[in-house]
């Protein structure tokens, strides 16, 4: 993997970059759709390409449980298994083990937990996580971290930060084929500024090819997240890509980019789509509401996606109202297109040094304060 | 609408035709995918086109209840509402009123029934059915008939046959814009040969633009269905299209075509797809079974559809096993492609006078006795 910094915004910490993997070249800042179980829910890889997706995220925890990383390896790796020839990033499983796994027990070795599917007992530690991710074969893989829930005490977060650093070191050691797969380190530290700073410098000292800020957008106030980014991002090396994990609301994309973040992922666009909610330039719209039963206009008049060019709110509302799968396919395509397009507008704005103006205009229209 | 008979098979009653609607020209014999609620389940219109679908069926009963035919009319008609510029045939609602409606009460006027969705009270008679179908705006519409369940007494079926004829006459009278929409009559008569013959001549005497054989494939033995076709089809005018309603298993397509049928529709391919079952040239395959967990071959090695070119049984099995929508999207595409392709092979065989050989070969491989 190569990361090339192309340009820095004159008025903020925003930056343009190019991330080159073995598969393709990705313009950053980039939003990565989430394909938890080796599929971005409801979408084919072809559809993802059409809306401009070049990199997707998939979840180690889920693929480890079903269908199993060994099966994926037998299939020729995740790309081949799911028919996606763009780039893939896999998370480490850390986040899911802590949020989905039951009866989890953490010690220095790793985490023992019960599957959320059938209650069976499993163990993932730094070495296992890397082994699973090696089998899956994503282009970018993540260090196994402890993602602490919010709120958590200072003492506990401190302990988790130190453990995360020790685990990161072990991940680095366990990961052999560094040419085929690039390993990113993850900064933790909850909402505690000094722990974030400590975690950032500890992880940076281990020298990874990229850095993620994890453990944010887990329930803390948005202002806390922005402050953490303000203090943490400057510690990360300028020439390496920076990834804000699990963040993808339109305002957060702007705020992250303005603070120097290059990569984002989030289930938000696909999750709300399945609930009948879509992004528009005028704010969120719950198209499943009966208000739209006779509304023959597109989801978003300003949008040029396949859905907005061909279908009305009334039709999509009917599909969702009658539980027809095409309904949530259309809202999903639209929502992912919306965020991917927004990122391209953001990149253009960085290029032209008008990102702050774009943000103001977008926020005003969208209804953000 | 125009129907042109192109060729008759030398060794059977099979025939090749061209059905020209205002939208397109359809080669017959043809299989019509079912889009019950203004969507062929899981599919976009573009995907339907790619697999060669030129005409789909949609259900009057369902669209009348949701979103309502007036709304569809306001949207500019069903084609525009669902973004399908191919041909559409709507059924009359008769079949669903009898199979889904609750507490139905039949009299000469029509049928009063309760919605299967919310129990609300509704009435559909011949004039209402035509009015609804006029609003929906399909290219081919059907007369409102009484589809008797199987088994039913001779006396009851006789009564229903006579009523169906009287209703057919009223449908013809109610349908004004015959240029925009073509009305087909429906032959009923259960499994009683003489009632079928009577129904056929009565309906034919009313002079429709096309004729359907209804009330088959409702639970009677297959041999009964074939016998009914043997006796009924010859009564239908040679120069008009003949449509066997609700039939679509591969063997029945062959048997119907061999007896002179031109059009078919069935929910079978899409329904079994959602249950994880697919057609292959070697017979049906339940891809959701764990047998296929590590089977990296395509659904059907002889198939050239998008799914078979890009995905393995193992991947599709994983998707269905984890309730991922892409799984049933892929099985649906494959199954519809399978039947549409089969019909094109059948047409080629009629053209080359080797349909009986194709049938024998297909049945043997598929595992039919």
Q: What structural class is derived from the secondary structure elements of chain A? A: alpha/beta
Side-by-side strand order of the widest sheet of chain A: 4-14-13-12-11-10-6-5
Tally of extended strands of chain A? 16
Q: What is the helix content of chain A?
A: 40-55%
Count of separate DSSP helical elements of chain A? 15
> Roughly what fraction of the amino acids of chain A lie in strands?
15-25%
Overall shape of chain A: globular
Give a short account of the largest sheet of chain A.
Answer: 8 strands, parallel
Q: Which assembly state applies to the chains in this document?
A: homodimer
Average pLDDT rating of chain A: 97
Low-confidence stretches of chain A: none
Distance between the termini of chain A: 39 Å
**Most extensive contact:** A-B, 33 and 33 residues
C-alpha Rg of chain A (nearest Å): 20 Å
State the main characteristics.
homodimer, 369 residues, alpha/beta, 8-stranded parallel sheet, 3-stranded antiparallel sheet, 15 helices
Q: Short description, anyone?
A:
With 369 residues, chain A is α/β, with parallel strands linked by helices.
């Amino acid at each position: 993997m190569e990361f090339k910094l192309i340009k820095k915004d004159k008025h903020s910490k925003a930056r343009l970059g190019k991330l080159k993997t073995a598969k393709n070249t990705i313009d950053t800042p980039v939003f990565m759709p989430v394909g938890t179980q080796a599929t971005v829910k409801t979408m084919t890889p072809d559809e993802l390409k059409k809306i401009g997706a070049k990199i997707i995220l998939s979840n180690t925890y889920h693929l480890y449980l079903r269908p199993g990383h060994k099966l994926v390896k037998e299939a020729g790796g995740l790309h081949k298994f799911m028919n996606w020839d763009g780039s893939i990033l896999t998370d480490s499983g850390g986040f899911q083990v802590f949020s989905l796994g039951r009866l989890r027990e953490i010690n220095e070795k790793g985490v023992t937990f019960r599957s959320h599917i059938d209650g069976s007992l499993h163990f993932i530690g730094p070495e296992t996580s890397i082994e699973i991710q090696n089998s899956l074969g994503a282009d970018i893989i993540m260090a196994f971290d402890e993602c602490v829930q919010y709120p958590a005490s200072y003492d506990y977060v401190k302990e988790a930060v130190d453990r995360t650093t020790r685990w990161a070191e072990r991940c680095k050691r366990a990961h052999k084929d560094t040419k085929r797969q690039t390993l990113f380190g993850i900064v933790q530290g909850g909402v505690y500024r000094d722990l974030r700073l400590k975690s950032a410098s500890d992880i940076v000292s281990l020298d990874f090819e990229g850095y993620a800020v994890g453990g944010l957008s887990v329930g803390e106030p948005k202002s806390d997240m922005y402050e953490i980014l303000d203090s943490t991002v400057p510690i990360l090396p300028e020439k390496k890509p920076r990834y804000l994990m699990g963040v993808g609301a339109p305002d957060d994309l702007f705020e992250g980019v303005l603070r120097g973040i290059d990569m984002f992922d989030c289930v938000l666009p696909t999750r709300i789509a399945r609930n009948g909610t879509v992004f528009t330039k005028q704010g969120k719209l719950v198209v499943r509401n009966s208000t739209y039963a006779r509304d023959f206009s597109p989801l978003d008049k300003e949008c040029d996606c396949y859905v907005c060019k061909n279908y009305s709110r009334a039709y999509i509302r009917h599909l969702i109202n009658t539980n027809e799968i095409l309904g949530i396919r259309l809202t999903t395509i639209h929502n992912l297109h919306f965020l991917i397009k927004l990122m391209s507008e953001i990149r253009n704005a960085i290029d032209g040094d008008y990102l702050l103006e774009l943000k103001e205009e977008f926020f005003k229209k969208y209804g953000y304060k």
